[in-house]
Design brief:
The chain is α/β, with parallel strands linked by helices. The chain has two domains: 5-188, P-loop containing nucleotide triphosphate hydrolases (Rossmann fold, 3-Layer(aba) Sandwich), CATH 3.40.50.300; 194-395 and 408-457, P-loop containing nucleotide triphosphate hydrolases (Rossmann fold, 3-Layer(aba) Sandwich), CATH 3.40.50.300. It has helices at residues 5-17, 35-48, 62-76, 101-104, 106-109, 132-141, 183-189, 223-229, 234-238, 241-259, 274-286, 301-310, 343-351, 372-379; strands spanning 24-29, 54-59, 88-92, 112-116, 123-124, 147-152, 162-163, 167-168, 175-176, 179-181, 194-202, 205-211, 214-220, 266-270, 291-295, 315-319, 331-336, 363-369, 422-423, 427-430, 433-436, 440-447, 451-457. The strands form six sheets. A seven-stranded mixed β-sheet has the order 15-16-14-17-18-11-23, sandwiched between helices. The protein starts with a helix and ends with a strand.
Length: 459
């Protein structure tokens, strides 16, 4: 079995460290670094050494479960599907409360390695404030499994609860990892592509709105100013035709360039909702691009993802399906049109295009709107364990801040303001909270041709 250097080092350290006195091992490795294969390699080493009899894995989705089963079968040469002859089984976290007593007795009757993928989904440490999945781990696994392996690419939570099976320093409450492997090292070692994040902004935005009987026109020098000083929301802009077309065009041109030397390279568009996904698909079709849609409503989502993984379709449009743990190595370009603005989700989406597979696919490209929180997340990508997140403290909601050094605009021949779709409604969401604007009857947003792009080359 061929392993990357970091995977071999992590396995060696875990084999030495795991013991009856120290049965838990926590590994943080950047998304797309190969955590699942490392876990399979550790399981193989423990099986060969006669230290375990069975392997049980848990993960947050059926898509990740399928990937785990495939990887472990490849490494171990034995199935992990729970059927006769298998070396173990894999389940979703959602299934844990429904497993019967006979299943949990396996932990008492056999020497079991329990693997928890994306463990940050499980809040633990205290049975009172843990979530349901964390409670299951605390009550049924923590003191019964021979060994546990906890894996995460983004090991923090946006609430005050700690992660199950994790240790935190005293008194600062900083997460303590047994093994860490960051993005900088992964890029240097050739395990991950180097991320290139392109943020689209506009230096001349016009807003026309009518409040009661008064009609008013306002101008803004950036997307951030528009969002900060008007009723327009980030989600409004994600449905704005001009913004969608601009971002899709940028991503399309880059994917075309990439496919000139990587023939089957694919692109991912992360949409806001199902209706939004179909709208994006219609725009791509108009541009002559083929695409496939997978959403949480798709009964055959896993099958469609598999078809895309092994096919040559250019684009896959996702709603809640391809964010963490889903392995599609040919994805190399992403257009981020999701309304979700959390640093964890943003990093997990970026991780979908970082998995390297050839010598000539060095870079991954993500395109997004220059919304202030998205800009902040993008600038922090190089920090694998942000000190203000991987601690046991409340994460404060990010507030809009004035633009800093907006840079020079990309002047185009035409400065004419374009017509955009009308944004109607009396309630708008600002920074994740609903706010009422009862006096706004209607509003329209127009973008000039003076778009600018900010390129963030992390490594």
């Amino acid at each position: 079995m061929k392993l990357r250097q970091w995977q071999s080092r992590c396995i060696d350290q875990a084999v030495l460290q795991l013991s009856p006195q120290s049965p838990h091992f926590f590994c943080q490795a950047t998304p797309a670094a190969g955590k699942t294969r490392m876990a399979a390699g550790l399981a193989l080493a423990l099986l060969k050494a006669g230290r375990i009899d069975l392997v049980i894995c848990f993960a947050p989705s059926r898509q990740i479960v399928a990937g785990i089963q495939s990887t472990f079968a490849d490494v171990l040469g034995r199935r992990l599907d729970g059927a006769i002859g298998a070396v173990g089984a894999t389940y979703t976290y959602q299934a844990m409360p429904f497993l019967d007593a006979s299943f949990w007795q396996l932990l008492d009757q056999y020497r079991v390695l329990a693997v928890f993928v994306e463990i940050h989904h499980c809040a633990g440490g205290d049975p009172v404030i843990s979530n349901r999945w964390g409670q299951e781990i605390l009550q049924r696994v923590q003191d019964r499994a021979t060994y546990t392996l906890a894996l995460s690419g983004t090991p923090w939570r946006s609430d005050e609860r700690c992660i199950a099976l994790a240790r935190y320093s005293d008194p600062h409450g900083t997460l303590v990892c047994d093994y860490s492997y960051g993005l900088e090292a992964a890029v240097r070692d050739g395990a991950c592509r180097s991320p290139r994040i392109v943020l689209l902004d506009n230096q001349q935005v016009r807003l026309e709105l009518q409040e009661s009987q008064a009609r008013e026109t306002k101008e803004f020098g950036s997307v951030g100013c528009l969002l900060r000083e008007s009723p327009v929301t980030y989600e409004d802009l994600l449905h704005h035709e001009d913004i969608m077309v601009r971002l899709l065009n940028l991503a399309l041109k880059k994917l075309t360039e990439v496919r000139s030397h990587v023939a089957d390279a694919g692109g991912l568009v992360v949409a806001t909702d199902v209706e939004h996904a179909h709208l994006i698909a219609s725009y791509l079709a108009r541009m002559g691009e083929d695409s496939m849609i997978v959403t949480y409503r798709s009964p055959d989502a896993q099958k469609r993802i598999e078809i895309f993984r092994h096919g040559k379709t250019k684009w896959i449009i996702s709603v809640g399906m391809i964010s963490e743990g889903t392995d599609i190595p040919r994805l190399q370009v992403c257009c981020y049109l999701s309304r979700i603005r959390t640093e964890m989700y943003f990093r997990q989406v970026l991780g979908r295009i970082l998995r390297r597979r050839q010598d000539n696919d060095n870079h991954a490209w993500l395109y997004a709107l220059a919304e202030p929180m998205i800009k902040r997340f993008a600038k922090r990508i190089a920090d694998d364990l942000p000190s203000d997140l991987a601690v046991l403290s409340k994460v404060k909601e990010e507030k809009y801040k004035p633009e800093e050094n907006p840079g020079q605009a990309n002047h185009e021949a035409s400065h004419q303001l374009r017509y955009s779709s009308r944004l109607e409604g009396e309630r708008h969401e600002k920074n994740g909270e609903a706010s009422s604007s009862p006096s706004v009857v209607w509003m329209e947003v127009y973008f000039s041709q003076q778009y600018r792009q900010q390129l963030l080359a992390v490594y």
